[in-house]
Amino acid sequence: MVPSRFLRLPSPLPRLRTAPRRWTYPLVAVVLAAGAPLGLLVVRWLMVGGVDAPKIADIVRQDLATFLYTTLSTLVVFVACGHLLGRQADALLGLSRTDPLTGLSNLRALEERLADEVARARRYGTPLSLLIADVDRLKAINDRSGHHAGDLALRAVADALRADARQTDLAARIGGDEFALIAPNTAASAALALAERVRALVAENAVGITISVGVATLGDDCPDAAALMHAGDAALYQAKTLGRNRVANREGGAAATPEA
């Protein structure tokens, strides 16, 4: 079921929001590059000694070419380096939030996004649903056909989630055989229908592979991210109890084709 890491309390500190580093690093580089001409100006000022403010302008005019070259060359080098370093930082950040086997987001990315979506749903009064899916009898697949077959099963589930996810949704692999999908602006009935489409897509396209899906929706009984995860986990357990290869909420709602 859902790892215990989901149950930790959210940080009281607001999450720092940053633009892509390939853009923020060059902006910082622009500020740093300004130090080169300023440093040159200070050196020249100290060399002549005791000059007042108007004479500083004279120093710049007298050696304008040097100041322009220093400014432009430093700016170009710093910005180029900042852009390259920023791209590398963005790539590393992407890897830290991506599951390497399926290409979906990982647990860390899901936790952060879920906290954001809960806050947004509470602020604007919009619905928010969460799907938690589990591959049925993955261990039996591994034992019977090898771990490569198990990996293919996981990728098949990931493909189904990707196929039905909207641009505003977030699909993630959250454990060995567990997946989740955050569905903003999605009420309970629509979330159940979405979960059933994903379940049917896996059953139709992946021979011998089925999934069980639990659905939870933000509400008075699920007021925060932790409660939403608890509800989704309980719904998944309900689907497993009812026979696998089906969709359920905590009350056992939603019909699906039982496992053959």
Q: What is the number of helical segments per DSSP (H or I, 4+ residues)?
A: 9
Structural class call reads alpha+beta
Please tell me the overall pLDDT. 83
Using only C-alpha atoms, the radius of gyration works out to 27 Å
Compile the SSE list and pairings.
Elements: H1 21-33, H2 35-48, H3 53-62, H4 64-96, H5 107-124, E1 128-135, H6 138-145, H7 147-164, E2 170-173, E3 178-184, H8 188-205, E4 211-217, H9 225-241, E5 247-248
Helix pairs in contact: 1-4, 2-4, 6-7, 7-8
Can you walk me through this structure?
The protein has helices at residues 21-33, 35-48, 53-62, 64-96, 107-124, 138-145, 147-164, 188-205, 225-241, and strands spanning 128-135, 170-173, 178-184, 211-217, 247-248. It is an alpha+beta fold. Mean pLDDT is 83; it is low at 1-17.
List keywords for this structure.
11% strand; 260 residues; alpha+beta; 9 helices; disordered N terminus; 5 strands; 5-stranded mixed beta sheet; elongated
Quick recap of the structure?
The protein has 260 residues and is α+β, with helices and mostly antiparallel strands.
